[in-house]
């Protein structure tokens, strides 16, 4: 079946998982003025706070990945602070519940930031989910359950493995965003990721955004690695 696709972000979102701001700016320099889509996560945020987000957002689109998961009131108030940064995307954990996700959205009111929710981390395997989370459905069912709850709360989409993107869109809507980390070019080191997909397959299955960290940031030539991954994703 041919599916309608409204929007796909053709640039891989680069996870800036660096321990210092110097490494971040040295890395971004290599791309010579290109406007990138980058992800700032806990590692940088807990060290440099909103300042690094503001700095990077001057020249790049930013996904602020802080994965909020707390009581609704706390999440709403934290999101109101994130709203001031006007980043393109930010996230919460769907496991926080529908009420928490609705509160997060209220906190973001007035900003242009899209809110998405993490379903099951791409570093979680089916067995780990059964054993540690004591969820006895299949991992796919769990991910779809969280996606439906996220849709019900009114969020723009989810973070999931590309493996699940097609099933999520079938269970929600074609426009429901599937942002997918756990991307590995064929033969690349997998590291702690469990549910990995190649850039080309991610696009075929239905990712709207791919997030790529180490295969680019740890590459000998990060610009070349970025361009190769972008080409595979868009071919
Ligand atoms: O929300 C995320 O961005 C995220 C969710 C998830 O399920 N898995 C996941 O890997 N991520 C993030 O995506 C990035 C993946 O990095 P690499 O494994 O180095 O490509 C990391 O910064 C993770 O924090």
Automatic annotation (TrEMBL):
Orotidine 5'-phosphate decarboxylase domain span: 11-229
Active site per the UniProt annotation: 65, 67, 70
Keyword Lyase among UniProt keywords: yes
GO cellular-component term (any): cytosol
Swiss-Prot/TrEMBL keywords: Decarboxylase, Lyase, Pyrimidine biosynthesis
PROSITE patterns linked: OMPDECASE
Similarity comment text for this entry: Belongs to the OMP decarboxylase family. Type 1 subfamily.
PANTHER family: OROTIDINE 5'-PHOSPHATE DECARBOXYLASE
UniProt name for this protein: Orotidine 5'-phosphate decarboxylase
Originating species: Floricoccus tropicus
Underlying gene: pyrF
